[in-house]
Design a protein that fits this description.
mainly beta; 6-stranded antiparallel beta sheet; single chain; Thiol Ester Dehydrase, Chain A; 6 strands; 13% helix
Length: 147
């Protein structure tokens, strides 16, 4: 199942400039693959790093994109996830304007309200970042749309 930008806005509470997912390519209960097209127009490139240095996507925003991808493992449930912990974060490659960031999140385990995810971000089949992300799951109080 695939989600476009409008479908994503129905699921995630994030809005510009903090929405880090452009499209969900694949989704099931155990795994999600999403895309972030990184453009020079991203507001964070104004300060990270400005000329004469190379523009580089901040690692914290790559982690945020992975966490937003992981939120799709909640599916069509009436749940909202809050970032609780990031472990084993590794950055292996710069992400620069023009890159297409492929984001992958796989369910590791869930105990009560704590969901643990293995996440990866890659560009051109080269790993850019990996992390284990823990999310606290809370009830939204209404049914969210699944895409």
């Amino acid at each position: 199942m695939s989600c476009n930008a409008e479908d994503i806005r129905q699921v995630l509470p994030h809005r510009y400039p903090y929405l880090m997912i452009d499209r969900v390519l694949e989704q099931d209960k155990e795994h999600v693959i999403a895309v972030k097209n990184v453009t020079i127009n991203e507001p964070f490139f104004q300060g990270h790093f400005p000329e004469p240095f190379q523009a580089i996507m901040p690692g914290t925003l790559i982690l945020e994109a992975m966490a937003q991808t992981a939120a799709f493992l909640l599916g069509g449930k009436s749940e909202l996830g809050f970032l609780a912990r990031v472990d084993k974060a590794r950055f292996r490659r710069k992400v620069i304007p023009g890159d297409q960031l492929i984001l992958s999140a796989s369910r590791l385990r869930q105990r009560d309200r704590l969901l643990q995810i293995e996440a990866e971000a890659s560009v051109n089949n080269e790993i850019a970042a990996t992390a284990t992300i823990s999310i606290i799951v809370e009830d939204k109080g209404n049914e969210a749309k699944a895409c």
